[in-house]
Amino acid sequence: MSRIDESLAMDRRRFLRATLCGGALLAVGGSYALPRLLAAGAEGGVPALVHTPPGDVVLECFADDGRDLGPCHVPRLVLTDAQWRARLSPLAFEVMRRDGTERAFSGSHERPAQRGIFRCVACATALYNAATEFDSGTGWPSFWRPIAKQNVIETRDDSLGMERVAISCAGCDSHLGHVFNDGPPPTGLRYCMNSVALRFIPRTA
């Protein structure tokens, strides 16, 4: 996971503003075009990133104790820019709605001492089981698989001059982190997440 500094974030804002004024939508990589719509009326001249339109989404639902409750239809959480800012902390907003990255080793969710699950801090979708977390040495919470494949969205990310696979929450399409092919068995994957995007629910029983 690459660190995005303040100047890079400012460049992204300028680019998005220029794109809006030019009447064009940003697309990346042909068939991997990012499904983002520029929302009208965003504050501060920076368009809100509404990644997907409203509607139901089928998720795998889990109780707080980790029990799999099966597939469930839930309304996808789609908010305005102002509503996201009110719902999330400033850092969570930058990470989850502006595709930013928190500073390494700044989070609080590396290797919790007890069993539990991680939910999306924005919409409470179940994302990871603590049993699949491992110490990657990167400074970000890392997992070798999501709690359910349908609960996350994978998209191609060509930003910063490199090819990566970005991970978003299927319940609200908020950016969570990236997945890499350098994880441990049994999957060989490393889902490298931003701690600020996760809420840990400890298992009490």
Task: List the topology elements.
Blueprint: H1 6-22, E1 37-39, E2 48-50, E3 56-62, E4 68-75, H2 81-87, H3 90-98, E5 116-120, E6 126-129, E7 133-134, E8 142-143, E9 152-157, E10 164-169, E11 175-180, E12 190-193, E13 198-202
Antiparallel strand pairs: 1-2, 3-4, 5-6, 5-13, 7-8, 8-12, 9-10, 10-11, 11-12
Structure keywords:
single chain; 205 residues; alpha+beta; 6-stranded antiparallel sheet; 3-stranded antiparallel sheet; 3 helices; disordered N terminus
Written overview of the protein:
The structure is a single chain. The chain is an alpha+beta fold and 205 residues long. Helix content is 16%, strand content 30%. It contains 3 helices and 13 strands, in the order αββββααβββββββββ. It has helices spanning 6-22, 81-87, 90-98, and strands at 37-39, 48-50, 56-62, 68-75, 116-120, 126-129, 133-134, 142-143, 152-157, 164-169, 175-180, 190-193, 198-202. The strands form 4 sheets. A 6-stranded antiparallel sheet has the order 7-8-12-11-10-9. A 3-stranded antiparallel sheet has the order 6-5-13, with no helix packed on it. A two-stranded antiparallel ribbon has the order 1-2. A hairpin with a 5-residue loop joins strand 10 (164-169) and strand 11. The chain starts with 5 loop residues before the first helix and ends with a strand. Residues 1-50 have low confidence and may be disordered.
